[in-house]
Request: fold
Amino acid sequence: MVARQRAGLLDHENIVYAAFLGDPDALQMVDSEEFVDCMKWISDNTGADTALHLSRYFPRYRSSVIKTPVSKLIEFHDIARDFLNYVYLGNIDFETGRNTSCPQCGQLIASRTGYSTIIMGSDELGNCTGCNRKVFKYSNP
Reply:
């Protein structure tokens, strides 16, 4: 409810979804249908240009909780892309979900590797140089 109220007040929406499948005794595994409902809600309430970061869970010291399978993260990425224009995968070194492309013409806007980002396909106003669609709300530094 708080997210719904705040959604219209923010200039920039950026959501992190921790793909934590967890301990069956502690958390119930999120299924694809529930995830679809969540993506519909985000798109309807914050807009299709909301950036979504799907983060892979990695257990650490003496944890019995399983890490998020890559296949589940990719499945969620593909579902989210049906509703949102900017979907990224985190805590995973994988080509899918790494870069930013223009949702209108497909031009590569930003290339990411690890913590390094190279902006290459937008002008100083944040518009795609291929089709002039606004891709960044703020101008490049």
Notes: The CA atoms of residues 122 and 132 lie 8 Å apart. Strands lie at 14-19, 51-56, 86-90, 100-101, 108-113, 116-119. Residues 1-10 have pLDDT under 50 and may be disordered. The chain has two domains: 2-94, 99-134.
